Amino acid sequence: MTSSQPSTPRAGRTNDELLGVRRWLQRTFVGPGLDDEPDTSDLGREAGRLEPEPALGHGSGQDLAQTLAVARSLTDKFLVLCLIDDSLHSLYSNAASRLLTLKRDLAETILSALRAGGTEDFGNRPLCLEAHKGLKEDHVRRLGSHLRSAVLEHCEALRTFEGFPSAESFADTLLATPGMPVSLLPRQDAVSERTIQGNALQSKGGEDAAVRVLPGGIELAPLSVPLKRRRQMFACVLGTGLIPGAVGLLCSLLYYWRKSWPFLVPYLTYSFIIDKSPFKGGMKISPMLRRAWIFKHWAAYFPASLIKANPSADFDGTRPMLMGYHPHGILSFGAQLNFGTDCTGWAEKFPNLTPRLCTLNMNLTMPFLREIIGRLGAIPADAGAIRSALKPGNAVILVVGGAAEALDTKPGEYVLTLARRKGFFRLALQHGADLVPSFGFGENDLFETLTPNSLLRTLQLKAYKILSFSMPIFYGRGVFTYNMGLLPFRRPLTVVVGDPIRCEQTPNPTAEQIDALKEQYISALRDLYKEWAPRLEPGRDASLMVI
C-alpha cells in the first residue's frame, strides 16, 4: 500500500454511499465540521470566529485563528477516514466515550506541527494503552496515508497552496514531523488506566462477584460463567500441560511398546540422532501453529499483550538482534505467549524479525514436545545454538536471569539476576548483535510464592546447579478455585519491548567493553521500567533491584 493512497472502502459500497457514511460519521462521532458552523470550543473562542476551509500556509505571519481552522479541518477529515477504516477502528473505539477530547487532542497536535514547521518532536506524547497494545506496522502506514489524504482533500477544495509549493509538499512536511502520524492516536487517560490496571492487579480469578468461600478459606469459582472464559481456561490448561502431556504420551507408548514400536523406533531415531536443527539455528517455524486458537485463547486468559515502547524504533531486520527478557518469573509465560506465538501481534509489530525464543535444552530433546515448541521458534539456551541463530533477520530472545532468578520470584517485587551475567553481553559484541531490553510487567504476579527457610533454600540452590532448572515453591488457582491450584492467576501480563542498543562487532571483547555494554543495557532496562511501571502497575512503589 503506497503512502499516497487511502485504504480501500468495503466492496459494494458506491461513492454516494461512502459520502453519506462519511457525513453521518462526521456529525455523529466527530461533531460539526468547519463547513457546518463556526467553532464554539474553548480554542475557537480564544482564536475568534473561524472562516471555513482557510488556505494552507505556514510561518510566523499566519494568524492563529487561520492556522487553528486548518488544523480542525484536517482533524475532521483524518478522523473520519480512520473511523471508516476497519483495521484502524479498534484503535479509536475505546475513545468513543470521549470523542470531543480525542478531537481536541488531534487538533492540538496538528496545530503544533503546523506552527512548528515540522520541527517539533511528538514522539514522547503518551498514547493510551489500547493504542500501544494494538498498534502494528501496517497501522502506521495507514495513518500516514489517511493524513496525506486529508491534506490532499483539503487542498483540492481550496485550489490554492498559499505558503507551500503544493499540497504534496505540505503533506510531506507534516508527515516528516518527528512522532507523526503515530501521535494522532488517542492519548493516555491516566485516571481510567489507573483504575482499570489497579483493579486487574488485585484480581486472582476473574470478574465474578459471587464467590463461595469454603472452610479453610478456599474460594470456589461460580459454575455459571461466560463460555468465552471457559474456552480461555481450557486453553490455559492445555498450554500449561504441554510438558506433562508430552511425558505422559511417551510413557504410554513405551508401556505399549509391542504395538507402538513400528512408530516409536523410527521417530526416536529421527529425534535423537538425525534431526539436529534445533541446535543449528532452529526448526522451520509454522505461522499457522503460532496463530493457533489455543494460543489465542490462552493469551486472552490473562490477558497477555505486547507493546513496542517506541513505535518508530528501528527493527528493520538488517542486523541480528539479541533480546533480553526480564523477569524470569515462575514459568516465563510472558515470553512464551508474546515471543513464542503470534497471538499478541509479534508478526505485525516486528514484521522483519523472526523470533527465536531460548528454552531449556531438555525441552527440545523431549519427544513430541520438541515438535511443538520447535515449530513455534524455540531453540536451546545453548551457546552454540544461539550463535547459529544470531544472523540478520533473527531476534534471539533469552530469559537472562535464568532459573536462579526464578527463586527470587515474589508478587509485587522484581529482583533481577543480571549484574553477574557476562556471556549474554559477550555474545552481542562477538556477533555485532543489537541488544534489546524487554520487561514483562505482571510476570511475578501470576503465582503466589512461599519463602523457604535457609535449609530449603540451600537444597533449592544445589538442585539448580545439578539439574540446571530451579524448583520454587508456589501455588496459583485451579479450574474451579481461585486460590488453590497450579494454574496462573488471571492478571494482566504486558511485555514492553525497548529500543535496540547498537553493538559493533568485536571478535575478542575485553572485560572493560563487556562491563560498559552491561551498564548501558541495565541503564536502558531501568529507564524502561521507570517509564512503564506507573502505567501498568499503578499504586506500587517497588523499585527494580539488579543483583
Written overview of the protein:
Helices cover 47% and strands 10% of the residues. It contains 22 helices and 13 strands. It has helices at 15-30, 42-47, 64-83, 86-93, 99-116, 129-134, 137-158, 167-175, 190-202, 227-240, 242-255, 257-274, 287-290, 293-301, 333-339, 346-349, 369-375, 383-389, 402-406, 423-431, 454-467, 511-536, and strands at residues 212-213, 219-220, 304-308, 321-326, 354-359, 378-380, 394-399, 414-416, 434-441, 448-449, 474-475, 493-497, 544-546. The strands form 4 sheets. A 7-stranded mixed β-sheet has the order 3-12-9-4-7-5-6, sandwiched between helices. A two-stranded antiparallel sheet has the order 1-2. A hairpin with a 5-residue loop joins strand 1 and strand 2 (219-220). The chain starts with 14 loop residues before the first helix and ends with a strand.
Rg, nearest Å: 27 Å
**Number of alpha- plus pi-helical segments:** 22
Q: What's the β-strand tally? A: 13
Fraction in helix? 40-55%
Strand order of the largest sheet: 3-12-9-4-7-5-6
Biggest sheet character: 7 strands, mixed
Structural class: alpha/beta
Strand content: 5-15%
Distance between the termini: 48 Å
List the uncertain runs.
1-15, 28-62
Q: Averaged pLDDT, please? A: 84
How is the topology of this model organized?
Blueprint: H1 15-30, H2 42-47, H3 64-83, H4 86-93, H5 99-116, H6 129-134, H7 137-158, H8 167-175, H9 190-202, E1 212-213, E2 219-220, H10 227-240, H11 242-255, H12 257-274, H13 287-290, H14 293-301, E3 304-308, E4 321-326, H15 333-339, H16 346-349, E5 354-359, H17 369-375, E6 378-380, H18 383-389, E7 394-399, H19 402-406, E8 414-416, H20 423-431, E9 434-441, E10 448-449, H21 454-467, E11 474-475, E12 493-497, H22 511-536, E13 544-546
Parallel strand pairs: 3-12, 4-7, 4-9, 5-6, 5-7, 8-13
Antiparallel strand pairs: 1-2, 9-12, 10-11
